[in-house]
Write a structure and sequence with these properties.
The chain is built from four helices and three strands; from the N terminus they run H-H-E-H-H-E-E. The protein has a three-stranded antiparallel beta sheet. It has one domain: Arc Repressor Mutant, subunit A. It is globular. The longest helix is centred in the N-terminal third of the chain and has 13 residues. It is α+β, with helices and mostly antiparallel strands.
């Protein structure tokens, strides 16, 4: 059960891995998605779907915005210059 709690607590907030990504964004403010992906995927039991869920939630909460996305792009992509900005 502990691994599940580390990934995502029962309230839907990111666990330890998500906090690492959030800390990276809060400290640097503007981070290329490729770097965020590298940091998240270096953590055990973390999938790209977890990362995209955290980013989606933070965007819906007004905590982040995106740069370098195509007009109809819904999720960030590697190797396309996508940037996540902490507000």
């Amino acid at each position: 059960m502990e691994q599940v709690e580390d990934r995502d607590d029962l309230g839907g907030r990111p666990g330890r891995q998500g906090r690492l990504v959030r800390d990276l964004l809060e400290q640097r403010k503007r981070v290329p998605y490729d770097e965020i992906w590298d940091a998240a995927m270096a953590q055990p039991m973390t999938w790209e779907s977890d990362l995209k869920d955290w980013l989606r939630r933070w965007h819906e909460e007004g905590l982040i915005t995106h740069e370098g996305w195509a007009p109809r792009q819904k999720v960030p992509h590697l190797d396309e210059g996508n940037v996540v900005v902490w507000l």
